[in-house]
Queue: 3 jobs
Job 1
Amino acid sequence: MAYWLIKSEPDAFSWDEQVANDVEPWTGVRNHQAKKNLAGMKVGDRAFFYHSNVQRAIVGVVEIVREAYPDPTAESGNWVCVDVKTVGPMPSPVTLADIKQDEALTDLALVRQSRLSVCPVSVEHWQYLCRMGGWSGD
DNA sequence: GCCAACGTTGGC
DNA sequence: GCCAACGTTGGC
């Protein structure tokens, strides 16, 4: 199974809304590299839910429950989305500042390509970030 | 196909 | 609010 990180501006769609909705279609991605990442997601993969812009922190964990299908919010039909399900909140959110300070995380896609809204996370980084956030996991 | 202009994202 | 990074558009 693979690991990912998906970004959302809390003003547009926040973690609280994700928790309230439980399962949410992850739509609106309009970047080819991000699309490629979405298309590579499998059911059962997990992703960090990251708040960009105002909070800048990993605030929770979600699971992919439906693989890439045409994004209904795209008129062209050329974009895709996936469905993600709430797994749980990070006990202590991992901030971007924390991540940037940590030498083990300098090659994280989140840091290297700040504008990419859907990025892959290696197993090593996933476990490392989980430890930082106090995620006991399952 | 190159490149300048412009728009958007996201950190600070 | 500013700016850097990056994507897109359009003229040539």
Job 2
Amino acid sequence: MTAAGEHPGPEVAALREFLSGDPRNVAPLLLGAVLTHQTDEGAVSVRLTEVEAYLGPRDSAHPDPGSHTFRGRTPRNAPMFGPAGHLYVYFTYGMHYCANIVCGPDGVPSALLLRAGEVVGGQAIAASRRPASRSPQDLASGPARLATVLGLTTADSGRDALSPPFGLALPDGPAAAVASGPRVGVAGDGGSRRYPWRFWIQDDPTVSQYKAAKAGTPKP
DNA sequence: ACATTGATCCGCT
DNA sequence: GCGGATCAATGTC
């Protein structure tokens, strides 16, 4: 009997409880964590190096105009209102998927967008999913790239990232050097500057550094 | 710097 | 119901 499938072990329960906190506090320990997805092709594992926090609806204690939940619950963003540790995957720009790990207590919508990572397992499968990749370090150096190498689509939205075919392993301790700054590409004007909730591992080559450079580049 | 591409959501009828 | 703006981006120019 596979009791493990029916009753999550204490480790998973503890991990889910940890993820139920404020994503801005969860972020430093999620950096360095390894997310795995097992499919028929095999398993791909990504070590997370860059995330962005998104918080609750407009009428919550933390209004966040950049969050998909700012205007309330919809069928698409429903997973963000669910238990922590589940995936929220959405489709954007007509061609890309982006994946979040849901945070916060059940009923309070918040999540961490997985912006970049390092492929640490299943490199061959990852590369086959990203033919345009030029180097191992750009395989998952972007939110849609990361979702692509893990084979995530909206069909995975709402699924539990802590149970098979997924898995999440936290690092032994917080990443040595965590940097933070404005979020990338958040719609509306004020959003990104007022909410510096992007977190990344400093000097990690898989972080989408070009975004930081772009943000700091003055207009001609 | 620009084309690509379709689901989603708001605000109307 | 329907129309139109929006979009947590990438790849190629």
Job 3
Amino acid sequence: MLKKPPGIEDVFPDRITKWNHILNTAADVFSMFNYREIIIPVIEFTEVFARGIGADTDIVSKEMFTFEDRGGRSLTLRPEGTASVVRAYVENGEYNRLSACKFFYRGQMFRAERPQKGRLRQFNQFGAEMFGSGDSYYDYEVILMMDLISRKLNIKDYTLLINSIGCKECREDYIQVLKAYYKPLLGSMCKDCNNRFDKNPLRLLDCKKESCAEPKKDAPDITGYICDNCSNHHYRVMDYLQKSGVAYTEDPRLVRGLDYYTKTTFEFVTDKLGGQNAFAAGGRYDNLVELFGGRATPAVGFASGIERLFLLMDEEAGETGIDYFLIHSGSESLKVITALIPKIISFNLSIDIDPEKTGFKAQFKKANRENAKHALIIGDNEIESGKFIVKDMITGEQKIYDLDKFDHYLKSQIKN
RNA sequence: GUGACUGUAGUUCAAUGGUAGAGCCCUGGAUUGUGGUUCCAGUUGUUGCGGGUUCGAAUCCCGUCAGUCACCCCA
């Protein structure tokens, strides 16, 4: 039997209703805030991610599906959306002249990690990005959108964590302070943290190991070290959130694994995803557009994992069934009833039929299984008498009509 | 990449080293043209794969593949 590669899922029809509900809810909220959809490629030149996300990040250094095209150029299946949207924005000369240019996207992402609960190699995200304004309002706006989406999806018991990791300048100052603090403690800390010390000192704050808990406890918080500009921005965002009733928790230890963030970072977390905890995350990235060769353009955005939202949502009621299951008694009646199908469909009514079964019992069984609202019966007896029968599959009630008034019957159904 | 656990019917799971089973699903039947509930009957297997131990392996051992969960990290 042929199998799918590890960490890749098929989404069968029984999950599609819930799946589309997530996608539609997100798209609705985005459009309420004037974010418009952009369809970005699944494949980019590897450079887009290497430069955008950061060559030293885990995503780029060990989690990308990368291959060469026939010309020997390195291509990569996108591991996230932001880098592609930025590339598209910079590359397009029309959109990058707009202020507060808003996009949203949705689609598959790929990361070559070991699959586990809430983590797949091919997974789906939706996300929103705003380009062209450094105003704290927009940080608030994207957070508000994700909060609204979470509420509309009826997700319970989540926490919004928020932090500011400062701008390029003040973050550097803080990193020096942090390294000075940690340096004498490195001996008692884990191997990973010793690596982080040089590669990405901010992540020292993120270690969950017991050996590092003690030194971490008294580490200086970034909040006291960021510049006035960043600090004001940070408090402004929190003020907006508070005044509009969006609950949040300030977490000065929240750092993110992607290099491009500046100032605001945030995560929507829950303890119901096993080893994972975030179902949405994002932040501001004021330097990324410039890094991609565009004019200096501040930006902010976020992304959310659809499979993770799916796991957090309650089971939804099953799909709604078809309108009519057509029941026949073999060859001749099958001809008659088949000829009516285009007519029924033209009234926007959905149908199904089993041409191979001729027994009524089996056909009714199938009608029931397909959740049909009605059964339309035209068998040999009906053809002989010029009638057709409609059975209401919920009440069990059955009515007989004249076959030459079939159109009239359909019209009367539409009015209901 | 590292680790732990699990692989038996379509599915969920049984089976002291001794003839591979049950529920659900599916198919058929219970006044032959009427579903759901009920009752009866029936189909379904290279026990993931390959070796080894044994008179005998689903069961024990080794390898391999797959899945799940966790770590790292992330949505």
